[in-house]
Amino acid sequence: MKQKRKIGRNVPCPCGSGKKYKRCCGGPQADPSKMVAVDYMQRYGIRLKQAVDVEAIRKAGRLALATLDLVEQHLRPGMSTDEINTLVHDYTLAQGAVPAPLNYRGFPKSVCVSINEVICHGIPGERRIEAGDIVNVDVTPILDGYYADVNKTFFAGEPSAEARKIVSVAAQCLRAGIEMVEPGNTLGDIGWAIQRHAEGQECSVVREFVGHGVGFAFHEPPQVPHFGQRHEGIKMVPGMVFTIEPMINLGGVSLRILDDKWTAVTADRSLSAQFEQTVVVTEAGVESLTPYPLP
Ligand code: MF3
Ligand code: CO
Ligand code: CO
Hints:
By secondary structure, this protein is α+β, with helices and mostly antiparallel strands.
């Protein structure tokens, strides 16, 4: 985006000082070392995070990971996806947080549960998990006003060779993406690394859904595509917080949205898997705020 956004003179300064913009980076005694925050807001609408913000997102991230652990403990064939919703909903509230998906743009439940051919945004309901299914669970709690977004794909019962393959390729894709995160690299580098890995394993990368800025809201600028070109796109700087969440199909790249307006499925009904973490760009490189081991 070439166009610059105008920052109101009386709004809190993008640099995070807590002062009005006109009395800080928008004023005569602006500190040049803080201008990157102003620049990223003006050029891209990206709100860089301060250390206190990162700590709060880390805390939301710990809750999100504990929620996924709870679901994993209870996951079994025969369970309905609505039972997963109840677990996530009740646990989130008990921890003093709010599930971000609930009523988000009309989404009716507190978690996304996406089985087998479902790429993402599966709405919990009557569908029952069967032995051999792959089940993605995507949780986003809002804790003290901060959002952390994380998902994993689990096996229920004994997985087929195909199920093992797509789940392992998707996890490796997230790892390849995270490995590209460091100041000076671009968002295109992340997408390039993911696409190269997926297509090298003869899998395909979903285009319609992308990673995103997160922390102050569920979905913030920038978009983080899981495909792309080296050296293209926005340059990463410390304080950027965003998700990487590649959706990888065993078959073709095309998708359909079901009549519920949310559920995205592979057009060829092939298996699709996804892993997501929320990361922050640091001076040293990257820190995951929702860390779990990746192959
Ligand atoms: N958690 C999803 C993501 O990773 C977004 C789900 S939107 C919802 O961005 F409304 F379906 F919850
Ligand atoms: Co996300
Ligand atoms: Co998510």
